[in-house]
Amino acid sequence: MFWLRPETAIWRYLDIEAMKGFEFEGRSLDFGCGDGVFSFIRAGGRFSAGFDAFQKTEKLDRFYQNVDVYDSYDESYDPLVASSPSYQISVGFDHKANLLRKAAALNFYKETIEGDGNAPLPFDSNSFGSIFSNIVYWLDNPAEVMSELGRILVPGGKICLMLPNETLPQFSFYNSLYAKTKDEQWKWLELLDRGRLSDNIKQSKSDDAWREIFRSAGLSVSHHSQHLPKVVIQAWDIGFRPMFPALMSMVASVDPQKLPSIKAEWVDALRMFANPLTAIGQKNDGSSAFHCYVLTK
Questions:
Q1: How far, in Å, CA of 32 to CA of 132, rounded?
Q2: Is the pLDDT at 65 greater than 80, yes or no?
Q3: By three-state DSSP, how is residue 28 classified?
Q4: C-alpha 51: how far from chain center
């Protein structure tokens, strides 16, 4: 799915491994579902080789202006599902209409709802048995978001979250070499950052700080682990990202009949590097850049 962005594939794989013990029960919510592909794959869904995460993009000429090139949809979008996932999620919630249209095309969410995660959520109290989210740290006030997620969760329900550790800023080339120093020789790293870590790095917190937010929201931690150590974050921080628009132009010129075999060759080569990185990335180390929490109300 992410053959042109193997650094994303590694991150997604490690997230899935980290949340292995979490199961959706009762009415379920994917809070910040995006195009739905991550949760679809996590549920066991698979796509044919003709489809990937890059099938529908636009505004690549504005890639280095921090534009979301995936926020695009038209009726030609076809996810080419090869096998269905083992379960469905009741609600996919996101603030981008185009991504929700992509998610709806998977037939994985029973319904999709557009809304702002920074605002009070359009759901009744005690209305979900399970919630997953990896976007809380992108929002303006995580404490308020956690309070809302706790409100809509049934007593005994569970929330699975991916949240950045306080070590994440230390692993960012942009943050450590330019944001902290303001050394003009590193200003070009803004092109690499593309607003990613500069936007969400302020939400990086220690385990103790996150737990205090959870307690205030009436939630207790039933599971905690950490993943994504420094070497994986730094591989992801650069990855194939700088060449992405050029790679997309190259792919557009390839005969569609030949593309699956090219993908297969590409992925086989990448596995030589991805496999050892994912093995390193699963180490449950207190210095790793991301927490995985399962919370109970």
A1: 9
A2: no
A3: strand
A4: 19
| Three-state secondary structure call for residue 270 | helix
> Could you tell me the pTM of the whole model?
0.94
> Helix or strand or coil: residue 232?
helix
β-bridge mates for residue 104, sequence order: none
Q: In Å, how far from its chain's centre is CA 271?
A: 21
Domains recognised in the chain with CATH numbers: 6-165+204-296 (3.40.50.150), 168-203 (no CATH)
Give bridge partners of residue 153 from the DSSP assignment: 128
Rounded-to-10 torsion of CA 223, 113, 12, 246: -160
DSSP class of 297: -
pLDDT by residue (tens digit) across 174-213? 888 998 899 999 999 888 887 777 666 778 999 999 999 9
Pick from 134, 176, 154: which is nearest to 25 by CA?
A: 154
Give the distance between the most distant pair of CA atoms in the chain. Answer: 56
CA dihedral 223, 283, 15, 191 (to 10 degrees): 130
Q: What is the pLDDT of residues 224-250, one digit of tens each?
A: 999 999 999 999 999 998 899 999 999
